[in-house]
Amino acid sequence: MTETQKKATGKGTARHTCQMCGRKQGLVSRYHILFCRQCFREWAPKMGFKKMD
Ligand SMILES: [Zn+2]
User: What is the CATH number of domain 16-53?
Assistant: First the structure.
């Protein structure tokens, strides 16, 4: 396995993206759904989640 492949598969997070907007940063996983923090803040109240801050 090359270094590039290790980086691509090592942490297993690079392929995860926000289900709503496709962002890769600040992902939050709840109920098998991946949100970025921005989308989570927008959707959490609508889905009945409480604030996490
Ligand atoms: Zn998002």
Answer: 4.10.830.10
Alpha-carbon distance 28 to 36, whole Å?
Answer: 6
Model confidence, pTM:
0.54
What is the DSSP code (8-state) at residue 18? -
Cα 2 to middle of ligand 1, angstroms: 31
Q: What is the whole-number distance in angstroms between the Cα of residue 51 and the centre of ligand 1?
A: 16
Q: How far does the centroid of ligand 1 lie from the alpha carbon of residue 46, in Å?
A: 15
Q: Dump pLDDT digits (tens) for 27-50.
A: 988 778 888 999 988 887 887 866
